[in-house]
Amino acid sequence: MEKDKILVIGEKESFLIRVLVKKLIDSNLNAVYTPSGVNAINAEWEDVAIVIYYAETDETPHKDVLQFLNDKLNDEFKKIIIIGEKNDVDSIKSGLSGEVIYKEFYRPLDNDKFVSEIKTLLLKIASGELQKHILIVDDDPTFLNLMRQWLKGSYKLSFASSGLQAIKWLGKNKADLILLDYEMPITTGPQVLEMLRSDDETKDIPVIFLTGKGDKESVMSVVALKPEGYFLKNIEREELMGNLEKFFMSRKI
């Protein structure tokens, strides 16, 4: 099922919140209201694409609600929009990490402009624009196809079948992470890493090596180059997904 639900959260279902939800629904968007509580939010969380917190004057959520929202949004790389008076918006922002906040809107709210903003955000989500971008570099087309099947939908993906192709791609594009084959012919993984780190434009892109060799000597050779980590190529999908999630979470802390 497509995740397109717009979850509107507020301390109570006020007239202004009802008007906003109706405006979203009338614009053919899947919007629902839920009260500000951990259990209530969790019960409506399935298929959520965007979270909106609508704060009435002098109304801010409890700390446990903000912590719950922050964890859920971070874990699933989702975004929240905050609506309210400036003081109330600032209070909510103080309980969330900056990565999960898409925008804030101050009252009075222009509902038509707001609906347009929501539609733009949904398009960005659908296109993968807001997802972390991973460049996978490997000369084995079968392995690249496996990575595509495993990671599509969770990350924005690009692929290169050689080290030089990866360098050329990075001359015009950005990546949040590079998964780099260690044992490539012609231009090896270590050579690619050396080139990346000698260029100011690419030196800070994190690199995790992919290797088919798990013996102690091979692993020590990989680790000696000081990448952000390494994955064995026989890794299971669940372990890979979990390790990638932990990696991106650690970059936020």
Euclidean distance between termini CA atoms: 32 Å
Mean pLDDT: 89
Strand content: 15-25%
Main sheet? Answer: 5 strands, parallel
What does the overall shape look like? elongated
Question: Can you tag this structure with a few keywords?
Answer:
elongated; alpha/beta; 10 strands; 253 residues; 21% strand; five-stranded parallel sheet; 10 helices; single chain
Describe this structure in words.
With 253 residues, this protein is α/β, with parallel strands linked by helices. Helices cover 43% and strands 21% of the residues. The chain is built from ten helices and ten strands. Strand 3 (48-54), helix 3 (63-75) and strand 4 (79-84) form a beta-alpha-beta unit. Helix 7 runs parallel beside helix 8. The longest helix has 17 residues, at 111-127. The chain is elongated. The mean pLDDT is 89.
